[in-house]
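Let us work through a complete example step by step.
Step 1: write down the sequence.
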Amino acid sequence: MTGLTDKKIELFSRDYYIACTIGGIIACGPTHSAVTPLDLVKCRRQVNAHLYKSNVQGWKTILKTQGDSIFTGFGATFIGYSFQGAGKYGFYEFFKKTYSDLVGPDIANKYKTGIYLTASASAEFLADIALCPFETIKVKTQTTIPPYANSVFDGWSKITKAEGLGGLYKGLVPLWARQIPYTMVKFASFEKTVEQIYKYLGKPVSSYTPIQQTGVSFLGGYIAGIFCAIVSHPADVMVSKINSDKKAGESLGGALSRIYKDIGFKGVWNGLPVRIVMIGTLTGFQWLIYDSFKVYVGLPTTGH
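Step 2: predict the structure and record it as tokens.
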């Protein structure tokens, strides 16, 4: 497949991984921050199910509240998920190639899904270390009324002053619990879905135009996003609760136990329909943007 530029990037070269990392930044930072109003209401309803009756009512209330904004948490979201996107996509491509080479072509081809799952888990583990401080600031700011901080730097300063640098990483384990299964499902189900779409269409990938291929990427991404939302939702609720409600000196296990006792099994599924729409749309557009960028720099789309 020919890209939209004359520049040819060699597969699995240094430039290839740089391009994938940049593509991840472009795919994740803008898309996550664009849905901040939806994410804001979702997070607040996860922490307090009785706060708003609906998303629309939530937005109306926020717009009427002095000092509040439907874009609360936008900056932390943009920075955090740009870092996360860089690590998630860049390291995924790196680990996918590395693990495939490690086991050899026969095993890699036979157990492709295992390679996808292992590579994506490894990538997300590292990506979350970069994301966590900004996710902590985002959730703390979004779930406090009026907002806890008026900027990313204000939030960073307040949290580190009160709790030290460790305060920025108090939600890392729940974040891993949410993001690693999410990303494993996101990448493995995307790769398999795209494979099945092309199998259903009955023609080789090379017979389709770049526009058609990125259309397949969007559809595959949206379907993958629905699975992602369901698998990771309980941990998403707990991340919101931990970052907003963990008491000083309380252990992570103690906080998780106390919070679960308060909200119960039903509570960990609060806000799921909103998250399915949000994550499905997000994931679809992320794969569309990522693969469009790969096409632009002369690389093939993902998933074949």
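Step 3: interpret the result. The radius of gyration is 20 Å.
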